[in-house]
C-alpha cells in the first residue's frame, strides 16, 4: 500500500486528483470507479480545472459509481447521480451515456442490483476505483456486518450513516434508509484503489481499516488484501496510523 500524507484537505484533493489524472492521461479510454460524499468534492474540482485547461480529456472515459440512495430519482438534489452531474459530469467533456450510476427509482431494487452487477462484469474491472470512508469504516454503502458481500446489493443503512448524511437533507427523517451499493467483489477487482480521507473524525476509521484486523465489522479493512491501494489523506485523518506505528 502506498500512503500519501498531506498538510490539509486542499493538498489531499490535489494529490488524489493527480492520481486519477495520471490514469486518464495514460489510458484515455479508462474505466473510472467513482465515489460521492463531501471528501471527493475537492478532487473533482481539480479534475474539472484540468479539463478546462486542456490537460485532461474525458471524451472516451467510462465511469461506474459505487452507489445510489434507494427511492431517489436522479434529478433529486441529494441523489448521487445529481451529485456527479453537479460536481463533475456537467463540467468536463464526458459522454454521459458512458457514465453509470445505479437507478435509485427502480421498481425492483434487487433486479436493478443484478443489472448493475452484470454491467460491471461486462465492462470489466475499473482501472482505478475511488473510495471515501465512513466513520464506521464503510466503503460505498457496504456497512459493518457479519460478512463481506460480493455482488451489488440493497443495504439497510446504519444509524451512524443516516446521522452522518442527515446534514445534507432538510431533516433526518428525509434521509433514505436504504441504498443500492456496489459490493466488495467489484471493488476488489479494480486494478487500483484510491482511498481519500480528511479530518480527525476519520482517524479512528482509517486506523481500524489499515492497522487493525481484516473483518466485516470494518468493511474497509478488506482493502488490506488488495495488491494496489493508494491512501491519500491529510495529517489529521492519518494521525491514527501514525500512532499505530505505520510507516507513511
Write structural notes for this entry.
The protein has one domain (2-243): 3-Layer(aba) Sandwich (Rossmann fold), CATH 3.40.50.1360. Helices cover 32% and strands 17% of the residues. The protein is built from 8 helices and 10 strands. The protein has a 7-stranded parallel β-sheet, with helices on one face. Helix 1 crosses helix 2. The mean pLDDT is 96.
Secondary structure elements and pairings:
Layout: E1 2-6, H1 9-26, E2 31-34, H2 41-52, E3 62-65, E4 67-69, H3 80-87, E5 99-100, H4 109-123, E6 128-131, E7 153-156, H5 159-165, E8 178-181, H6 184-189, E9 193-197, H7 203-211, E10 229-234, H8 239-243
Parallel strand pairs: 1-10, 2-3, 2-6, 3-5, 6-9, 9-10
Antiparallel strand pairs: 4-8, 7-8
Helix pairs in contact: 1-2
Pick out its properties:
248 residues, alpha/beta, Rossmann fold, seven-stranded parallel β-sheet, 8 helices, 10 strands, 32% helix, 17% strand, globular
Short description:
The chain is of the alpha/beta class and 248 residues long.
Q: What percent strand?
A: 15-25%
CATH third-tier fold name = Rossmann fold
Q: What is the H/E string?
A: EHEHEEHEHEEHEHEHEH
Estimated radius of gyration: 17 Å
Distance between the termini: 10 Å
Given as residue ranges, the uncertain stretches (5+ residues, pLDDT < 50) are none
* Whole-number count of domains: 1
Amino acid at each position: 500500500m502506498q500512503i500519501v500524507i498531506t498538510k490539509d484537505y486542499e493538498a489531499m484533493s490535489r494529490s488524489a486528483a493527480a492520481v486519477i489524472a495520471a490514469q486518464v492521461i495514460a489510458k484515455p479510454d479508462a474505466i473510472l470507479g467513482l465515489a460521492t460524499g463531501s471528501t471527493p468534492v475537492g478532487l473533482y474540482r481539480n479534475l474539472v480545472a484540468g479539463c478546462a485547461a486542456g490537460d485532461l480529456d474525458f471524451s472516451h472515459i467510462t465511469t461506474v459509481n459505487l452507489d445510489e440512495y434507494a427511492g431517489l430519482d436522479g434529478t433529486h438534489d441529494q441523489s448521487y447521480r445529481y451529485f456527479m452531474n453537479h460536481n463533475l459530469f456537467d463540467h468536463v467533456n464526458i459522454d454521459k451515456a458512458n457514465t453509470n450510476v445505479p437507478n435509485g427509482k427502480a421498481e425492483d431494487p434487487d433486479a436493478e442490483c443484478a443489472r448493475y452487477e452484470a454491467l460491471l462484469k461486462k465492462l470489466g474491472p475499473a482501472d482505478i476505483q475511488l473510495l471515501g470512508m465512513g466513520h464506521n469504516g464503510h466503503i460505498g454503502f457496504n456497512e459493518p456486518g457479519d460478512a463481506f458481500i460480493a455482488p451489488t446489493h440493497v443495504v439497510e443503512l446504519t444509524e451512524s450513516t443516516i446521522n452522518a448524511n442527515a446534514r445534507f437533507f432538510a431533516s433526518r427523517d428525509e434521509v433514505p434508509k436504504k441504498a443500492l451499493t456496489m459490493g466488495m467483489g467489484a471493488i476488489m477487482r479494480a486494478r487500483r484503489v484510491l482511498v481519500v480521507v480528511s479530518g480527525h473524525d476519520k482517524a479512528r476509521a482509517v486506523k481500524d481499516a489499515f492497522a487493525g484486523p481484516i473483518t466485516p465489522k470494518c468493511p474497509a479493512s478488506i482493502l488490506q488484501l488488495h495488491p494496489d491501494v493508494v491512501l491519500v489523506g491529510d495529517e489529521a485523518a492519518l494521525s491514527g496510523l501514525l500512532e499505530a506505528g505505520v510507516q507513511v
